UniProtKB/TrEMBL annotation:
Alphabetically ordered keywords of this record: Cell membrane, Membrane, Transmembrane, Transmembrane helix, Transport
Protein name: ABC transporter permease
CDD domains on file: TM_PBP2
PANTHER family documented for this protein: ABC TRANSPORTER PERMEASE PROTEIN MG189-RELATED, ABC TRANSPORTER PERMEASE PROTEIN MG189-RELATED-RELATED
Highest taxon of source: Bacteria
Annotated localization: Cell membrane
Membrane topology: Multi-pass membrane protein
Length: 299
């Protein structure tokens, strides 16, 4: 009897005991509201690029008599691209631009990143702080101010050729490259370098085997920005290069425009062909630019 009563009591306690309930996971509602003011601003700013691009494309496919309007061409003149290819000597000019771009990118990565590493690891010293602010000040000096002295100096040193152009792209980009790279380098723990020094690594070995590989996103950003600059630049090749056979695409188009001032469709076709390679590269590499700049800024 007592056993039955105790069994009934235990069963009633079990039934009366509160059953633990699972705490519901908080659900965060996504805000699907559209900021129409911001959307309108972005749309207007996009038109400043899309409208000239549309005008360039439709003009490149028109006859000279139809050029100058935003309307679609009556007949599509695809031969304008073939004519521009021949008149501008596109293969030779594009090869010169490609050589200048590739060499400038390689020299920039081999030198500017090491300068950034030296400055970042010695910011507590007055001399390196001075170098940092000196290089940053280069970003605020208009190129037109130093254009004539640079041209005179390169001519006196007999560097008015491709070699001089390589050096100028490497040197003139130091300021912006330091600004991008130093913040990222200072986020790398110095304990990695101390451990490497204990194992007998030199400063060069530490940089090339530890720091440089870790700077992958930053290096990609510097390489892409330098490539865009070297490929599209007009002023530096104009004032430095004296050999006509070494002219780049912008220089070849400049001479082409002077020669064929009335044939705007052919000129616009050459502009599109010059823009196409670098545009394709940037479309596939833009994530590296954004991630690299954010890494340098946040870290």
């Amino acid at each position: 009897m007592s056993n039955a009563a105790s069994l009934n009591i235990s069963q009633s306690q079990v039934k009366a005991a509160p059953v633990p309930t699972q705490v519901p996971t908080p659900q965060y509602r996504k805000d699907h509201r559209v900021n129409w003011w911001l959307t309108a601003v972005v749309a207007v700013m996009s038109l400043t690029i899309l409208v000239p691009l549309y005008f360039t494309v439709v003009t490149a496919l028109k006859t000279p008599a139809e050029a100058g309007t935003f309307s679609l061409p009556n007949s599509w003149q695809w031969h304008n691209f073939a004519d521009a290819w021949t008149q501008v000597n596109y293969p030779k000019a594009a090869l010169n631009s490609a050589i200048i771009t590739v060499v400038s990118v390689v020299l920039t990565l081999l030198t500017n990143t090491f300068v950034a590493y030296a400055v970042a690891r010695n910011m507590d010293k007055r001399f390196f702080r001075f170098l940092y602010y000196f290089f940053l000040a280069m970003m605020f000096v208009p190129f037109t101010v130093i254009m004539l002295p640079i041209a005179k100096e390169m001519g006196a040193l007999h560097l008015d050729n491709l070699v001089g152009l390589f050096l100028l792209y490497m040197i003139l980009g130091v300021g912006s490259n330091l600004f991008i790279a130093i913040g990222f380098i200072r986020s790398i723990p110095e304990s990695l370098e101390e451990a490497a020094r204990i194992d007998g690594a030199s400063t060069w070995g530490i940089f090339w085997k530890i720091i440089f590989p870790l700077m992958g996103p930053i290096n990609a950003t510097i390489a892409i920005l330098t490539a865009l600059w070297a490929w599209n630049d007009f002023l530096l090749p104009l004032i430095i290069l004296t050999d006509r056979s070494a002219q780049t695409l912008p220089l070849a188009q400049y001479g082409f425009q002077n020669q064929f001032t009335s044939n705007y469709p052919m000129a616009f076709a050459s502009y599109l062909m010059a823009m196409a390679p670098v545009l394709v590269v940037y479309v596939f590499a833009q994530k590296w630019v954004i991630s690299g700049v954010m890494s340098g800024a946040v870290k």
